[in-house]
Amino acid sequence: MKWIVKEINSYNLVVWKNGKGKSTQIHVEPQGMSVQDPFEWRVSSAVIQQVGPFSAFEGYTRTLILLKGTKIALFHQQQPNICVQLNYFRPYTFNGGWDTDSIFQSQCPAATSGIPFNSSFSSLSVSPSMSQGSFTNSFTPSQTPTMLSPAGLHSQQTPVISSFAQTESASNFNNIEDDGVNSPVIPHHPRIPIIVQPHPKDEAHDFNVFTRDSVCDHSCVVYEFGEQTLNPIPQQPSAIKTSHRISMMPSGPYKSSSMVFYSFGGDVKIHYEGMEGTYIECKLLNGHSLIIQDITPFTNIDNLVTVESKSPPNHQHHLIVVNINYLDNPKVQQPII
């Protein structure tokens, strides 16, 4: 088992695959590969100042986590009737090869024209299904919503969302949850094109994970520190969550795993108890990351690490934890075009 602590000055600035922006590459495996190479997995962050089409990563699964700034909405050509509105620290997993377009939520019809539209929300826990190319996020539309097409969103002319619904009201998302609140039925007026106006102050900060489907898969969880937790003792003050225990055990028939810890908004201490009284410990400052490689089912008895906030008790910050699991029987890699 190998621990690698990475500071901000060790990250690399990388041009997006489509050449329309840059991201901060936190780590890539094998090391030294570019986004044009058939890398196995990659984690990065980016500041999105201009929305538009996403780079396509055919044969990869991608998870996006919105960290701060203006919220964004995604459109997939392969799911033309769904607009996915991202919430802060809610991982959203999708097929990296899909034709994906984006728009700031402040530019969405509900914010600019007074005509609202449906949205769907993803949750903290994601579980990609590699063989089928579909992914289990926590939103499940019970009916087909009003179509919102991203066509023409980013042309040289003023972008327009095509919103010509067959019915006068949008369908209801009965099973969509956003912080435990069901999305309501939202009326929509048919056959009115909605003009999307740019906003000069829009900017989004995100965190991305890519894994090559033929080699490995991944899952993401976001842990929060400084949040209030209910005290089981009546009339006692609520406790402040300052630590978490996280399992390192691979959750399937994997030959080995890697983990990525990314601290955002505060400092955190990570502690691992080995055998015969040995231990490994490190402290991550805001924006720093820890890569743990070569984790096997025989790493140790309990396979747990303890993460503890080193920021003031009432200071809320987050720790993104990514589990990357290498398949026991990797598939034959197809050429990447």
Automatic annotation (TrEMBL):
Gene3D superfamilies: Jelly Rolls. Signal peptide: none annotated. It comes from the Eukaryota. PANTHER family: PROTEIN VES (PTHR37943:SF1). This is Uncharacterized protein.
